[in-house]
Amino acid sequence: MQQIQINPLKALKPYVETDIPTKEGMPTVFQVETVLACNLACPECVIGTDKIDNRTKKVMRLKEFKIISDKIKPYAKMVYLHNWGEPLMNKNIFKMIEIASEYAHVHISTHGNLLDKEKCEKLILSGVGTLIISIDGLTKEVYDQYRIGGDVDKVMENIKYLSEFNKIYGNRVTILPQFIVFKHNYHEVKAFKDFCSNLGLRGILKKPYIRFGEVVQESSDKKYQREKYLNKSDHLDAISTCNSARAKMVVAANGKILFCCAQDYNGDNDLGSLLDDGSTVESIWNEYQYQKTRKSIVNKNPPSVCTEDCIIYNKGY
């Protein structure tokens, strides 16, 4: 294979805490939705189940990303290049990683089906700092129940390639295979741990976000169930820590700002766009209604979308 001409010794920006704003109160974490589309049909994903009604599927163009990147650059310490969608469907994702890695720690989450050996090497050398690869089963029978349309053998092979190239280039990337623990795959947790251990990788056992519950269910093991807050006080305390209210801006594939990464998937709030002429991070972040809503969350008086619908801070009362 021809050697990729990227300097593997370039230092990467460190991973940072995600809820600390600048001293001027500006966000330091930016979640940029480089793709609003996916080639899988995962049953708890709003894009996989085609539940997004008010937004058009889109792949962010490189020139659009450059405009957004220039605006977030003065503040960003962490840049996620994914939200609702598979980032590797964007043909320019490696260039986007390279650009963002000049000023921030870059985080990517992928289902890993669109990689191959050459792309695995390219990804390791791209400038990405943290890489999550979702694989929620180690056998076809189990994997296919959630990652509908995926190929577990291909993903396992790609994780191996990523691990091998990362070792060759000095373990520059934090590679995190991720296993969302459901009822149907609980018995493969040990196999997942062994798979990661054999590759020298730290696997993530993730509690599921259950939005629909029609196809998959939580494990009966409470260790892999998300906390459900049983009284209003505890619930509001938890919601008040949300980093979307403190230091995180979510940018949709069309440049518009989403209120949060989890629940505002339809873009129901008109918060402006970083692709508008004259718009800035400051002008959007400090817009009266946006600022007022964020303060209401911190002050434990959040809107109903937070108290009734949020799947991160689950209401249990």
Summarize the structure.
This protein is α/β, with parallel strands linked by helices and 317 residues long.
Describe it.
This protein has 317 residues and is an alpha/beta fold. The chain has 10 helices and 12 strands. Strands 8-7-6-5-4-1-10-11 form an 8-stranded mixed β-sheet, with helices on one face. Strands 2-3 form a two-stranded antiparallel sheet. The protein is globular and about 50 Å long. The N terminus is likely disordered.
Query: What's the number of helices?
Result: 10
DSSP, total strands? 12
Strand order of the largest sheet: 8-7-6-5-4-1-10-11
Alpha-beta content class: alpha/beta
Sheet bearing the most strands, described? 8 strands, mixed
Helicity, in percent? 25-40%
The oligomeric status of these chains comes to: single chain
- Characterize the overall form: globular
As a percent range, the share of strand residues is: 5-15%
The radius of gyration is: 19 Å
Following the backbone from N to C, one meets helices and strands in this order, namely EEEHEHEHEHHEHEEHEEHHHE
Cα distance spanning the termini = 58 Å
Low-confidence stretches: 1-8
Q: Give the mean pLDDT.
A: 94
